[in-house]
């Protein structure tokens, strides 16, 4: 299936079952802005809870805040966003389509890598059990030639981006003979820088003094509150501040559903450490964040690190955790060692002393920062796309099932009376009432039980219970498992424990390391 087809299917499913809607749909939509529906908001909240609790509950030295979206405009000068939060853009003169120059080149490299992978698969088929992938990659002439090409293009791109050399970036596009995917032509404009921040006016002032920005990241709200939190919370280094909130970027290339949005949500944690210890903490956070992802069970092979060759202006080490989306491995989370760049600059721009007195070493310093930053919406897409599954059943029918990790599933339990009479709905309602504050439950009495199971499969409900005529006497229900479709009979009084054993965050947290 092509990337477009996969997306079509996912978007259609996400819409049909109330996960994600295009924003302003009845007005033909607003590009790269999305709304979450009745199922989507539950999944999103569960993702946020998983992140928040893993940060601030599991770690005694991490606390949360919720800072405003609007901030003093000087903050964005201090952070470097006014001057440097740009993407290099290029237009195709024939299709009039606009692209990010670096993304065009990255896609070109991805195509070469695809060729390499195909060659490796051919080798695997040819040599069967004796296949040695490492040796094959090191010796096969086609693989070597393509790898050399990919490495060269990558190096040239990194050099051009690092030097902010827009002409070199354009030359690379021309040299690689990259064509516009729409018009097929290689008729490109020059590369220009484009600032991604949205601006608006505050109050009634209409000159530049009233210009403020919609924050492009939540991190700065943490930095400018460093002293407030450190002092009022009596925090001792190392410690972290976590925040979940909206961010806004006027993205040039805004395709790929909720992967790249203009309004999105971030979960960011800034960890303040002693200068000189940042790289140690950077390595530790890399592992802890990967562990957080893997504990969900979406598949260990779906993640990989991508260390940055081009470091952002504030970083001395940076990596992405990439996830295998339907369109290949792409950034899901960024982990950056941000040095003392932000705190020092805020100290300089605000004129306030932003330092920490370390009682252990008896000295004052500007702490260094390790940041972990993940998009809620990208995480949502990672969960949704890897959970979506079309299955052929033994009876020849197909079912669509979302194998969402039970801890994240929007609805944990469907309560289904077999028929709408004979006192069964009353028992079902009683069960529902006794459980609905423990888990999100859904009451469903419409249609055949088979159809109800399909509906629950399609929204990823891990368990359904059926109340039948025997229930009246034996006080037991049939519980059906979404993944195995197996059914077993259990006493009504055991249902709460059964569901909680299988959907409680505790099980996942038990697999995670802590900062202490
Ligand atoms: P990209 O290279 O994909 O543009 P980035 O490196 O600019 O991302 P960061 O600034 O590191 O992203 O932001 C941290 C996280 O925020 C990303 O890993 C991603 O999950 C999320 N994110 C960033 N931009 C967007 C967006 N436009 N839509 C949705 N999520 C986003």
Topology (elements, then pairings):
Elements: H1 3-16, E1 20-22, E2 34-36, H2 38-57, E3 62-65, H3 74-78, H4 81-84, E4 86-91, E5 98-100, H5 101-127, H6 133-139, H7 141-162, H8 166-175, E6 192-195, E7 199-201, E8 211-213, H9 219-223, H10 226-232, E9 239-248, E10 263-273, H11 278-294, E11 303-307, E12 317-325, E13 328-339, H12 341-350, E14 356-358, E15 363-365, E16 368-375, H13 376-387, E17 388-392, E18 398-402, E19 413-417, H14 424-435, E20 441-443, H15 449-459, E21 463-467, H16 469-474, E22 476-481, E23 487-491, H17 495-503, H18 505-509
Parallel strand pairs: 3-9, 19-20, 19-21
Antiparallel strand pairs: 1-2, 4-5, 4-6, 7-8, 9-10, 10-16, 11-12, 12-13, 13-16, 14-15, 17-18, 21-22, 22-23
The chain binds adenosine-5'-triphosphate (ATP).
Give the strand content.
15-25%
What does the oligomeric state look like here? single chain
Q: What share of the residues lie within helices?
A: 25-40%
CATH superfamily placement of the largest domain = Bira Bifunctional Protein, Domain 2
The structural class is alpha+beta
Radius of gyration: 26 Å
**Low-confidence runs (pLDDT<50, min 5 residues)?**
none
